Structures are given as C-alpha cells and as structure tokens.
C-alpha cells in the first residue's frame, strides 16, 4: 500500500525552512509537520505561509537539542517518513564567541533527530549544509569533489561534522538514506515579499545590509574591502534565490523516495554557478528598487574569502535541479520583504 509521505521539517519557521514548507505545500500533497523552538523565528511565520500558499502546515514547539522532547515528538506523531533538518544556529561570528552553544545545539539536534527518526522508521533525511565547509578555497568553481580547506569557524565545523555523522550513519547499514545540501548564499524572498528572512540582530550578510540601509534601519552601509584581486576589487559570492533552494529540497526528497539505487549518503552543491561582486549586487539592487544606496568603503573584514562560487552540475544531473531566478528577482523580492516588514509599499 502507498501512503502519503509525512515530512518533518525542523526549523520550519525559519528563513529557508519556511520557504521549503511553502514549496512543499504548494507543489505536493504531503503531510507537513514543522517543529521549531523559535530561538530565531516566531510562529507568525505559519500565517504568512498560509497567505502565500493557502495552506498551513501542522506545527509544534520543541527544542530538538533535548533528546526527551524529540522522542516524545516521534511518539506523538507516528508515521513520519522523511525529515528535512534545518534547525540550527547559523551566525558565523556568533559561533566564534559561543562555540560550545553552537556545537551543543547543532550537533545535539542533528543526533537526536537522526537517531529517533531512524528508530521510528524514517527513510529519507535531508540536511542543511553550507559552502562554508569549503573554507578558504582557491580552486574555483568548487564542486563536490573539491577537497575542502579547513573550516574557518565553529559554525562551519558543525556542518563538516554533520556531514560526517550522516555518512558514517549511512555506512552502518541503516535503512535511512540521507542527502546533504551545501547552500551557497541564499537570498531573496517569496514573491511579493510574503515570506523572508527575519533579522533579529544587525545583519552580517550583504543583502539584508543593503535592504536595511535602503529602508533607513542602517544609516550607511560599508563595503568591506575594494582591494581584492577581482574585477572591481570587491568580494565575489554565489547568490542563490531562496525559492530555488527550497525547490531543491523537494527534488532531493523525491529523489530519495523514488530512486531505490540512490546511494545511502550523497552531497550536492546548491549555487547559481556564477559569482557576483559586492558592487554588482549593489548596482542591481539600485536598478530594481529605484533606491540610491549610501555606502562607504571600509577595510577588509577578517575571515572573508576573496571569491567563492559553485559548480552545481551534479544537482542538475541527478536531481534535475536548475536555479530559475535571476539576481534581479533576488534583489526585488528581498526589497519587497523589507518594505512589507516596515509596512511600506515596494515599487
Ligand atoms: N541562511 C544561510 O545563509 C545559510 C547558508 C548555508 C546553510 N544554512 C543552514 O540552513 C539552515 C536554515 O537556515 P536559515 O537561514 O533558515 O536559519 P533560521 O535561523 O532562519 O532558521 C533556523 C530555525 O531553526 C530553529 N532552531 C534552532 N535551533 C533549534 C532547536 N534546538 N530546536 C528547534 N528549533 C531550532 C530556529 O528557531 C529557526 O526558526 C541552518 O541549518 C543553517 O545553518 C543557512
């Protein structure tokens, strides 16, 4: 007999989780349960998901770093078939100051969810990894066979370890298969700015910095370094629309469900495949938003790599994943979200 898949999304109230829940609700008939402790989000997200898709997931508040709460969750929701595990702390600079909290939260939640999930019959597991596992790499673009340099932060190390846990678990003969998705720089928001990234601290990332400057939350933004060996002297990153990232999760999940010969563990880069400089990103934002940004050039920031971008051909070949949205759409939707947060209309 064929049952409807029942998918647990951990961290489903967060930025990428909420877009993935929305993608699942709008493109599948799967039963969706989001579990979050709202350490970096709020349950209001579920109403926004409903606005965006016409559907609301089931949801539950729990701390996944607590094994007892995870065991109780699986007892109360029998029949979960797959897990998409987003729940983690994600700030690189914060992880440098609070390494123990990062290792505890990110490792314990993964170990708890993986162990209890497998014990309760879960067959598919998708893990949020990151391009930060590649460290300061100089061979570009990076693909999944590129030997990573050393991880630069406790945060990045939690992803290195997470991948290792999944590959060791796969080798132990479990019936659970897993995929690690290494996101490059997810940006942008659901069309119309209905869902987006809720910044609870001063942002360290370029796109939230841009939109917050344009809306007036930040007086003047800084471009960190214009003396890098790149075409305009500023750093190069691989920005990828969060809706493209969300769709990759649906594809990866379906791939594991429908491909008996899929390996027990696999890993995929998710990037656009092309690099954009900081100044190019600013220029694109100004063009699509009709806003003029004030910025100054500041010294380089410690820990920033000069350039990184992805070779994502493996995801295309095996998952049939192709990023569909342009840098203009990333900037435009991010701006719509910022305006919606401020109660203003975007252009
Ligand atoms: N946003 C990025 O740039 C990026 C890049 C690469 C990888 N990732 C990874 O993708 C995942 C999702 O990132 P995001 O940007 O959506 O972050 P987010 O902070 O918006 O979402 C994470 C969610 O997990 C929840 N959470 C954290 N610890 C929890 C716990 N112990 N129990 C229950 N819930 C918990 C938070 O409340 C939050 O809602 C994370 O694993 C992150 O490390 C993010």
The rough form would be described as: globular
At CATH level 3, the topology of the largest domain is Rossmann fold
Structural class: alpha/beta
- Helix content bin: 25-40%
Would you tell me the overall average pLDDT? 95
At CATH's second level, what is the architecture of the largest domain? 3-Layer(aba) Sandwich
Q: What is the CATH H-level superfamily of the largest domain?
A: NAD(P)-binding Rossmann-like Domain
Bound molecules: nicotinamide-adenine-dinucleotide
Tell me the fraction of residues in β-strands, as a range.
Answer: 15-25%
CATH level 1 name of the largest domain: Alpha Beta
Q: What is the end-to-end distance?
A: 51 Å
Strand order of the largest sheet: 3-2-1-4-5-6-11
- Summarize the main sheet: 7 strands, parallel
Count the domains.
2
Low-confidence stretches: none
Please provide the ordered H/E string of secondary-structure elements: EHEHEHEHHEHEEHEEEHEEHEHH
Count of DSSP-assigned helices: 11
Number of strands: 13
**Alpha carbon gyration radius:** 19 Å
SSE inventory with pairings:
Blueprint: E1 6-10, H1 15-27, E2 31-36, H2 45-53, E3 58-61, H3 67-76, E4 82-85, H4 92-97, H5 99-119, E5 124-130, H6 154-171, E6 177-183, E7 185-187, H7 206-215, E8 221-224, E9 236-237, E10 239-241, H8 242-258, E11 265-270, E12 276-277, H9 278-289, E13 295-298, H10 313-319, H11 327-341
Parallel strand pairs: 1-2, 1-4, 2-3, 4-5, 5-6, 6-11, 7-10, 8-13
Antiparallel strand pairs: 9-12
Bound molecules: nicotinamide-adenine-dinucleotide (NAD).
């Amino acid at each position: 007999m064929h049952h409807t898949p029942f998918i647990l999304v951990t961290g489903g109230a967060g930025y990428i989780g909420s877009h993935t829940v929305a993608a699942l609700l709008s493109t599948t008939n799967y039963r969706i349960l989001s579990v979050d402790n709202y350490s970096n989000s709020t349950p209001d997200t579920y109403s926004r998901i409903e606005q965006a898709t016409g559907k609301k997931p089931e949801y539950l508040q729990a701390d996944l770093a607590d094994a007892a709460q995870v065991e109780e969750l699986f007892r109360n929701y029998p029949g979960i078939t797959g897990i998409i595990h987003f729940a983690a702390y994600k700030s690189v600079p914060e992880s440098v100051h609070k390494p123990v909290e990062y290792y505890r939260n990110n490792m314990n939640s993964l170990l708890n969810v993986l162990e209890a999930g497998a014990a309760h019959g879960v067959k598919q597991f998708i893990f949020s990894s990151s391009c930060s596992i590649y460290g300061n790499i100089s061979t570009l673009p990076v693909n999944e066979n590129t030997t990573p340099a050393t991880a630069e932060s406790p945060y990045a190390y939690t992803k290195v370890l997470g991948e290792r846990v999944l590959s060791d678990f796969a080798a132990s003969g479990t019936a659970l298969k897993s995929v690690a998705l290494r996101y490059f720089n997810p940006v942008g928001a659901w069309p119309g700015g209905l869902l987006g990234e809720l910044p609870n601290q001063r942002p360290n990332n370029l796109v939230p910095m841009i939109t917050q400057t344009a809306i007036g939350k930040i007086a003047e933004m800084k471009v960190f370094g214009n003396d890098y060996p790149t075409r305009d002297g500023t750093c190069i990153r691989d920005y990828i629309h969060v809706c493209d990232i969300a769709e990759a999760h649906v594809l990866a999940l379906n791939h594991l469900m429908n491909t008996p010969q899929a390996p027990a563990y696999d890993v995929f880069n998710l990037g656009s495949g092309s690099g954009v400089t900081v100044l190019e990103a600013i220029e694109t934002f100004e063009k699509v938003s009709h806003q003029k940004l004030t910025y100054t050039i500041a010294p380089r920031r410690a820990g920033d790599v000069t350039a990184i971008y992805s070779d994502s051909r493996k995801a295309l070949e095996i998952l049939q994943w192709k990023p569909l949205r342009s840098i203009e759409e990333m900037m435009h939707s991010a701006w719509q979200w910022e305006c919606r947060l401020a109660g203003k209309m975007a252009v």
